[in-house]
Write a structure and sequence with these properties.
Helices cover about 30% and strands about 15% of the residues. The protein has about 500 residues and is an alpha/beta fold. It has a single domain, classed as Alkaline Phosphatase, subunit A, CATH 3.40.720. The strands form 5 sheets. Strands 8-7-9-3-10-13-6-14 form an 8-stranded mixed sheet, with helices on both faces. The chain is globular, with a radius of gyration of 24 Å.
Length: about 500
């Protein structure tokens, strides 16, 4: 007998012949195994049906994983590869000379002044001898754990579109964030915390805001949960604020809503949207306890606070970007990220920099590289180095991926004398942990740091995500969802695994 097609609101699976009688649970598990997305929602389903807990069994992954979770570090505003990780002797030699790219160049803001060397000194670090800028010096202590990629290319020099591309794999809104795809593919390891958590910049959201980590057409429970660790109320609307709400009345209200939801749900057994909404509210109730514990750093020893740069916690900082503030806030997010992944969170996204304003609050250094980048870089580098060392000493680095990214790079020519314009034509990403080789560099930019040296073989965002998913045990070509008659995936119709940087 021919198979039927079950078309839900989010995806499409092939069902069993109608003449076959099977255990409902067994059938649902087989649906997942037969579909192209492997074990996408099996984790939560198993937990709720009292099977093996919340962890997706390895047999439901596409291949044996090297990693279980991801911490993504996103530098909003476009961090300069030329002033941090990608040293260019030719710019030192040609500094101040009229820039000649040998081709037509599309500048974003008339940023084609003379060639400009980095205003920062570069030194070699680690056994690998990697040249890095003084403004990221703390990363020198862990550089032998990092895989650099210096030939990443973008598609747009516009912040919003480029941020979408790096965060979701597409240049436009309406697509799930990378963390949502990971959450969807792997499920959750903890019923009391979200599988995808976002820690924005303490000043506010980057370009596009929450659209960077939305679930779009994936189930709503996969979207990023936003937490502001430095605020008195880190998760909005988590605790009832009204004086007249008692614990007893609060519980009675929840019980009533649950009964009404289940009645509504029984009349619509094939619609998963209500179930996703119910689960999100159930999770919120659990978060009132679990999130509070995860965000409480008081039980961390003094040496850990010092390692992450939290010695001056609570200090009042000036309005302009400064290294002490960046160190504290970025370090705090890194430490909380470690505590979250210890508790089973699959994907933690840490942001540095918010949307454009004046004075600058991000990495968009059009006016002066020496004004913004040193503070942001040192804060980021100290927190990140602490995170890598901390994970390593706890035995967590080997199965945790750290991914450093930004929306594009900056030009090798000067702008306004001291700044750099946007450069979507080449920039840097790097990975650490999770089966990635340490102390290696893949891909090169050209002598100027303007475009890839090998223009026919650049690294695309699709390649970085294909590699990340591969390390998590997921085939990026099989992690798909049918939406509007198109099989969508994080890597669109592109991407290949960068085998040179994985072990």
């Amino acid at each position: 007998m021919a198979c039927k097609t079950f078309a839900g609101p989010f995806t499409t699976f092939r069902s069993f012949p109608t003449s076959t009688k099977m255990n409902p649970m067994a059938s649902r598990r087989d649906f997942l195994k037969q579909g192209s997305i492997g074990g996408m929602a099996l984790a939560s389903m198993l937990a709720r049906e009292h099977l093996q807990g919340a962890v997706v069994p390895s047999s439901d992954l596409h291949h044996p994983p090297r990693a279980k979770r991801v911490i993504q570090l996103f530098m909003a505003g476009a961090a300069s590869h030329l002033d941090m990780f990608d040293f260019k002797p030719e710019l030192v030699k040609r500094h101040g000379e009229k820039s000649d790219f040998g081709e037509h160049v599309e500048a974003f803001q008339n940023g084609l002044g003379p060639w400009m060397k980095s205003p920062f000194e570069f030194e070699r670090h680690g056994a690998c001898g990697k040249l890095m800028s003084e403004i990221v010096e703390p990363l020198g202590e862990v550089v032998d754990d990092i895989s650099f990629i210096h030939n990443v290319v973008g598609k747009s020099g516009v912040h919003s579109q480029a941020t979408y591309l790096q965060a979701t794999g597409f240049q436009f809104p309406g697509f799930p964030g990378a963390g949502s795809w990971v959450s969807y593919g792997l499920g959750s390891e903890n019923e009391d915390l979200p599988s995808f958590v976002v820690l924005p910049d303490h000043r506010g959201f980057a370009s596009n805001g929450p659209k960077n980590w939305g679930s779009a057409f994936l189930p709503t429970h996969t979207q990023g949960t936003t937490i502001f660790p430095q605020r008195a109320n880190p998760i909005e609307d988590l605790h009832p604020q009204a004086d007249y709400v008692t614990d007893e009345s609060h519980g009675e209200g929840i019980d009533l809503v649950n009964r009404l939801n289940r009645l509504h749900q029984r009349s619509r057994p094939m619609d998963s949207r209500l179930d996703s909404r119910i689960r999100s509210y159930e999770l919120a109730a659990k978060l009132q306890l679990s999130a509070t514990r995860a965000l409480d750093l008081s039980d961390e020893p003094a040496y850990v606070h010092k390692m992450y740069g939290l010695e001056n916690a609570g200090k009042k900082y000036p309005k302009n970007i400064n290294p002490e503030e960046e160190t504290e806030y970025f370090g705090r997010k890194c430490l909380i990220a470690r505590r979250l992944i210890e508790r089973g969170v699959r994907f933690v996204q840490i942001w540095s920099g918010n949307d454009n304003s004046f004075p600058r609050r991000n990495w968009d250094s059009h006016e002066d590289m020496t004004r913004d980048h040193p503070s942001l870089s040192l804060g980021m580098a100290r927190g990140t180095a602490a995170l890598i060392k901390d994970l390593k000493q706890r035995g967590l680095l080997e199965d945790t991926i750290i991914h450093w990214t930004t929306e594009f790079g900056r030009m090798p020519s000067s702008q306004a004398g001291k700044g750099r314009d946007h450069n979507p034509f080449v920039f840097t990403n790097w990975f650490a942990g999770g089966g990635f080789k340490g102390g290696v560099t893949h891909g090169e930019s050209d002598q100027w740091g303007y475009k890839p040296l090998d223009r026919k073989n650049p690294t695309l965002v699709y390649d970085t995500y294909a590699t990340m998913l591969h390390q998590l045990g997921l085939d990026h070509e099989r992690l798909t969802v049918r939406h509007n008659s198109i099989d969508r995936r994080l890597t669109d119709v592109h991407g290949h695994v960068i085998k040179e940087i994985i072990s």
